[in-house]
Amino acid sequence: MKLIYLIFQTFSLFSSFMVVNLSNSIYSVLFLILSFVNLSGILFLFGVDFLTFIFLIVYIGAIAILFLFVIMMLNVKLEHNKIIFKIGGPIISLILGVLIYQFIIYQNIYIELDLFNENYLIWLIQYYYLNNIEILGLILYTNYIFLFLVSSLILLIAMIGSIVMTIYQKKNIFKQEILFQTNKQLVDSIKFIKIR
């Protein structure tokens, strides 16, 4: 369990580092999605199931995809031959690697993680025989159904708005007008000119 937690933690640190330091904004958004996936995996290991699914649905499904739409709409000219770290790249990578390694060693030696012990007692399961998702689902769909429908409607409007914003027509595009072409007569299209 600790190995899986350390894998998620390392990938989340790496992906958040790449979000900040990449020059290509589309790749930055993709690494942002990867960092959200890793953080939701960490939350799932901690036993917070509902927040895990909220991270996956809201942050990845709505916000990160909206960022991706907006960045793809912008005409960003990329410099393909530009290297981010020309001089200090290996030095910065070495320092960050040493810091991450020291953090992992410190966490394994000096911090006792009681979250991975399976001896603690969850009172909701003992009394109601339900897990977190079932209890939150019952509360959400009974007491807060109006707010749930309003929030889903807001997300639907945001999705439709992002799709409408990406569909735009350029003014300099040549296209055929079929009605004008079928109504054109031979007299209107060919002109005979007398030279003499």
UniProtKB/TrEMBL annotation:
Q: Which Gene3D superfamilies would you find in this protein's record?
A: NADH-ubiquinone/plastoquinone oxidoreductase chain 6, subunit NuoJ (1.20.120.1200)
What's in the GO CC field?
mitochondrial membrane
> Which reactions does this protein catalyse?
a ubiquinone + NADH + 5 H(+)(in) = a ubiquinol + NAD(+) + 4 H(+)(out)
Report the subcellular localization: Mitochondrion membrane
Q: How does it sit in the membrane?
A: Multi-pass membrane protein
Give any GO molecular function from the UniProt entry.
NADH dehydrogenase (ubiquinone) activity
Q: What class of enzyme is it?
A: translocase
For this protein, the parts annotated as crossing the membrane are: 53-76, 83-106, 144-168
> Is this entry keyworded Ribosomal protein?
no
Q: Which UniProt keywords apply?
A: Electron transport, Membrane, Mitochondrion, NAD, Respiratory chain, Translocase, Transmembrane, Transmembrane helix, Transport, Ubiquinone
Any one Pfam family here would be Oxidored_q3
Keyword Ribosomal protein present in the record's keywords: the answer is no
Say where the protein is mainly found: mitochondrion
What InterPro entries does this protein map onto? NADH_UbQ/plastoQ_OxRdtase_su6, Nuo/plastoQ_OxRdtase_6_NuoJ
State its Enzyme Commission number(s): 7.1.1.2
- Report the sequence similarity comment from the record: Belongs to the complex I subunit 6 family.
Q: What does this protein do?
A: Core subunit of the mitochondrial membrane respiratory chain NADH dehydrogenase (Complex I) which catalyzes electron transfer from NADH through the respiratory chain, using ubiquinone as an electron acceptor. Essential for the catalytic activity and assembly of complex I.
> Which protein is depicted?
NADH-ubiquinone oxidoreductase chain 6
- Identify the taxonomic lineage of the organism of origin: Eukaryota, Rhodophyta, Florideophyceae, Rhodymeniophycidae, Gracilariales
